[in-house]
Each structure stands twice: as C-alpha cells, then as structure tokens.
Amino acid sequence: MSRTEQAQQKAAILVQALPWLGHFQGRTIVVKFGGNAMTDAALMDSFAEDLVFLRLAGIRPVIVHGGGPQISAALDKLGIESHFTAGLRVTTPETMEVVRMVLVGQVQRDIVGRLNDHGSYAVGLSGEDARLFTATRRPAIVDGEEVDIGLVGEVTEVEPGVVEGLLADGRIPVVSSVARGTDGQIYNVNADTAAAALAVALRAEKLIMLTDVEGLYANWPADDEVISRLSADELAEMLPTLSSGMIPKMEACLHAVRGGVPAAHVLDGRVPHSVLLELVTDEGIGTMVVPGGKP
After folding, report:
1. Is the pLDDT higher at 241 or at 30?
2. Cis omega before residue 240 (within 30°)?
3. Which of 91, 136, 220, 268 could be cross-linked to 151 through a Cys-Cys bond (beta carbons 3.0 to 4.6 Å apart)?
4. What is the pTM of this model?
C-alpha cells in the first residue's frame, strides 16, 4: 500500500468517526475498567489514549475500576489467604485494609498516572470521597441461603456532585470501588455494580464494561457467537442461565438501562482501543444492551 493510500485509509476512519463524535459531544460516558487489560501495560496505555482522545473530542468520560488480581497478589505477599463464596471475595477487616490500600494507593495511581502522561486530565477518587458511594452490607447467596462474607457492600446511594464538579472542570474522574456504610464501616463493593449505579446517577449516555470476553455469547460453550444487541427484557430472561463471572456484569448493564442509561456495552478489554472501536466506528464490537422489551 502506498503512502497516499495509507493516508486516505486513515482519513476515511476519521470521517467515519465524525457523526459519532458529534453525537456524544458533551455527554457523559462511564467506563468500568477491569480484567486482563489492567495487568497488561500496553493495554493500559491504549486505554488511557482512548479516554484522553474522548476528553479532547468534547466527551466526558468517567472511569470506575476494581483490581481483583492486584488484591490477590498483595494478599499472597502478606501471607493472607484469599477465599471466595459465590464469586465474591470474603472480606475480613484485615483483608479490607489490603483492598483499600491496593485499590486507592496502587491501581488508581497507575491509571491516573497513565492518563496524565498526556496532560493534566485525571483525578483519583475513592467511593468514600464526598460520600460518593454509600453501601450496606450484603451477604452471598448459596443454594438459596444467605452466607456472611464480611465487609462486602452493595451501593445503595450515590451523591455524584464531586464527579460532576470534576467533569465540569474538564477532568477525567477515576473512581475506586470502595464505599463507606451508614454504620461507619468501609466496604469492598463490586466495581461492575458501582459503575452502573454511578452511570444512573450521572444520567450518562452510555455504560461501558471492559472484560475478558468478546461479549455475551448466545449459547456458550456450545458456540462462540456473540450477541451484538439485546433488550433489557431479553437480558433479564437470560440472566439465570449465564456463568457466574458474567452475571454481575450483565446485571449491571440491566440496572443501568432500566435506570435511564440509553445503552450499556460489554466489550473485550483485551482488544487494543476497544473503547474507540465501539464508540466511533459504524460496526462497533461487543454486546449492546438497550431498554425495552422483546421485539
């Protein structure tokens, strides 16, 4: 391919992005960042480039992150054994200290630093800051019975003022998924559900969930066909049949669209620039969930 042809190809991609950039300009998009993309330096860099690109294009991105692999690694180093029940980390007070330290002091700092390699954009927040998230203790459900799993919380209230202020100032908020309860305890909250709750509170245009699969499969593991689009009612019907790893993500998408977010997406975070591929190309990738019933 000649240099002219290469330049024309790049120009065609930019032209294709124009209507989408125009549509999303001034709108808020919440991105849940997690999975293998958080442990791969190249993928983290491409993610940071995507979010800064959106910010420079006049879009208002917000990041909510967890950090399961980093938490497990830190616990291993300290000789603290990790236990999971129904896919949720059993969180003792000792474990909670490590969770808080890793999410706010390590993972968040890394994301903020990579974004700020491109300018003065990112500001880190904890769900504790300005009472952004309030949580209540939640049990795990095993065989229909409630099981106590310690300091694990469910976000029950969101006060988005601090995030809205940062967005108005042109910043990219980076939010760690810990929260304070009305009982004064600090809780480990699921980043998927926290992102959905924040998207609803901010009246976001989209919720984007980055994960380690291509999207929601129609009939896994029998085949690997990815559902490109489905309604809230269709998703609600599928939820009981999904794998334990996908249920929190798809429940978060369902909560978001039923709470007023126009669309929620599950994308493969292992694909470089997956956020841009979804938002500013005609084809898109992954699975999109929209409000409404079955067609």
Report:
1. 30
2. no
3. 91
4. 0.91
